Amino acid sequence: RKEVEQDPGPFNVPEGATVAFNCTYSNSASQSFFWYRQDCRKEPKLLMSVYSSGNEDGRFTAQLNRASQYISLLIRDSKLSDSATYLCAVTSYGNNRLAFGKGNQVVVIP
Amino acid sequence: NAGVTQTPKFRVLKTGQSMTLLCAQDMNHEYMYWYRQDPGMGLRLIHYSVGEGTTAKGEVPDGYNVSRLKKQNFLLGLESAAPSQTSVYFCASSFLQGAREQYFGPGTRLTVT
Questions:
Q1: What residues of A are in contact with residue B40 (Cβ under 8 Å)?
Q2: Which of A62, A78, A90, B1 is in the most buried spot, having the most CB atoms within 10 Å?
């Protein structure tokens, strides 16, 4: 089983709609969780950390489910500028490293 | 404050040639990482460093060597390039122990023919 798994999509979302996707992880000892955003042919940039109680940053909501070992990202009121690939990342190997998923590609359609 | 920079941005190599990719960060970060990103494979860790003078293997270290002689620089070497090393290479750095927020460089696009 891969350390971090994501459904690559693409997720085609009408502008203004809500989209959500999950990322599953295999290492129950993972302690920190993140969502990164990567635009086409650009470097990944941190979107938000994921906290145990769940957290929001504007239109973005991240949640952690330790029992089922997945994190989720929800985007409300999608904008054209939200089109990107969203990578989840979890700490690995004694927490010195991050393991990344392959990403969820989101395409917001006018 | 430039953040993380990478040199070069693009490179074409012939099979068997060698090259060094340079990563530099001006944020005084302890941790530095080299990843490669291939279509359908996601980001894979090649080598990383938890401080000046230290290096460790990641997920796909074969065919690469690294050095961290100065805290701000992390070099990735390819001694004898192979077409399988055609990829986009990203360097990243992190301040806090525990590989928390990582800051990425803009990437180096390498083609090996």
A1: 8, 102
A2: A90
Both tokens assigned to B10: 């693009």
Instruction: Decide if B107 and A31 are in contact by the 8 Å CB cutoff.
Output: no
Give the integer Cα–Cα distance in Å for A105 and B2. 28
Q: What's at A1, amino acid-wise?
A: R
Q: In which element (H, E) is residue A22 found?
A: strand A19-25
C-beta separation of B20 from B75 below 8 A: yes
The shares of helix, strand and coil residues in chain B, as percent rounded to the nearest 5, are: 5, 50, 45
Residue with tokens 């971090």, as numbered in its chain: A4
pLDDT tens, position by position, A23-43: 999 988 888 899 999 999 999
Query: Among candidates A24, A25, A9, A14, which has minimal Cα distance to A103?
Result: A9
Chain A residue closest in CA terms to B50: A96
What is the C-alpha separation between A91 and A62, in angstroms, rounded? 16
Per-residue pLDDT tens for B29-55?
999 999 999 988 889 999 999 999 999
DSSP for A31-93? --EEEEEE-TTS--EEEEEE-TT-EEETTEEEEEETTTTEEEEEE-S--GGG-EEEEEEEEET
Rounded alpha-carbon distances, angstroms, from residue B97 to A92, A94, B32, B44: 12, 10, 11, 20
- Whether B107 sits inside 8 A of A103 (CB atoms) is no
